[in-house]
Amino acid sequence: MIKYLSLQSITALHDTEISTAVERVIRSGWYLQGQQNRLFEENYAQYIGTKHCITCGNGLDALCLILRAYRELGLLKEGDEVIVPANTYIATILSITENQLTPVLVEPDINTLEIDEQQIEQAITPRTRAVMLVHLYGRCAYTSLISNICQRYNLLLLEDNAQAHGCQYGEKRTGSLGNAAAHSFYPGKNLGALGDAGAVTTDDEQLTQTIQSLANYGSARKYEFTFKGINSRMDEIQAAVLNVKLQYLNEENQRRKMIAKAYHEDINNPQITLTKDNDRDNVHHIFPIFCPSRNRLQQYLKDSGIETMIHYPIPPYQQQAYKEWNERHYPITEFIHQQELSLPCNPTMTDEEVQFIIDQINKYQ
Ligand SMILES: *Cc1c(COP(=O)(O)O)cnc(C)c1O
Questions:
Q1: Sites of the modification N6-(pyridoxal phosphate)lysine (predicted)?
Q2: What is the per-residue burial (b if ≥16 Cβ within 10 Å, else e) of 201-218?
């Protein structure tokens, strides 16, 4: 059986180094807000290309902390609108509604699967204050047009970079393209911890201080509380693991790119559509293919010993959690959710496995 993703094999790639780093933390007796977090904040800010990085508990917290901090700073207020892609993972939308802001859903472009830059301007109203990009599947959603629109309308440009660690736009990395970006180090992401972990990157000094304080009960100085904050911290153990794994991220993304290239060159079943690949700005967190008989294809591959996933079966606005939106229709988003199938694409796969997957898909009738 070829698993969709084996976290055991992913961790085994750097087993000794990770174990040594974790043991060092265990023996140090210092488990929160210590050296490993400071080091990772430095390393990751440098990697992404921002002045600051603030570690936190997980990716959803990172998203929420950005929006909450802008509320505290007076740049966002209750009822303000945030433009966001309709076809994202629900966490992006949750962070917006959690902060009493209004998500304005915009369809993706079917060719890129990212938010349709042409539809953003039409979605702007007098209450719009921000655009939240999601670099979904590991592809860059940022375009210069989007940046121009944000400047023209004085909107904050925010990034959900949970799926795109290492992705580039020209010389810059996603996570450094707007005012602030949220990152998740959930174990299955391209850069994954051995548990929950997240971070915010930004060049904004004031935002940095506000987020640091909000994530620490609203306190910048011990026993003095400026905000009604939360507790969202990265364990020292997770920071130590990430300090090891960050060193190998580019190499591992490179392996993903090679696998994706093989899929692109060799999958030629007329029932199956691949998206146009702009390899330069894609770190292939997820490799999506499209097929009208998606469920049957998934079963066929399972019977052939290949595990696949669907990202995602139900869009956020069709979830019970957002029942107030259940009557809405976004045809491109629905097409993606009905026909998408994600192939295994990760740095532990062998060439033989990749070839086997290609052969099985090409034989599908
Ligand atoms: C994984 C993910 C998140 C949430 O990250 P967690 O660390 O699991 O909270 C947010 N947005 C997107 C697009 C994601 O894929």
A1: 189
A2: bbebeebbbbbbbbbbeb
189 part of the active site: yes
Question: What is the pLDDT, as a whole number, of residue 279?
Answer: 56
Atom of ligand 1 nearest to the CA of 88: 13
Q: What is the pLDDT of residue 276?
A: 79
Q: Tell whether ligand 1 has an atom less than 6 A from the beta carbon of residue 174.
A: no
Is 151:126 a contact under the CB 8 Å cutoff? no
Whole-model pTM over 0.85: yes
Chain-centroid distance, C-alpha 105 = 18
Sheet holding 287-290, edge to edge: 273-274, 287-290, 340-343
Is-contact 223 231, C-beta < 8 A?
no
Regions of the chain with pLDDT less than 70? 277-280
Query: Is the domain covering 7-105+112-246 a CATH 3.40.50.740 domain?
Result: no
Question: Looking at the domain that runs over 249-363, which CATH code has it been given?
Answer: 3.90.1150.10
The reported pLDDT for the residue numbered 278 is: 59
* 58 ligand 1 Cβ < 6 A: yes
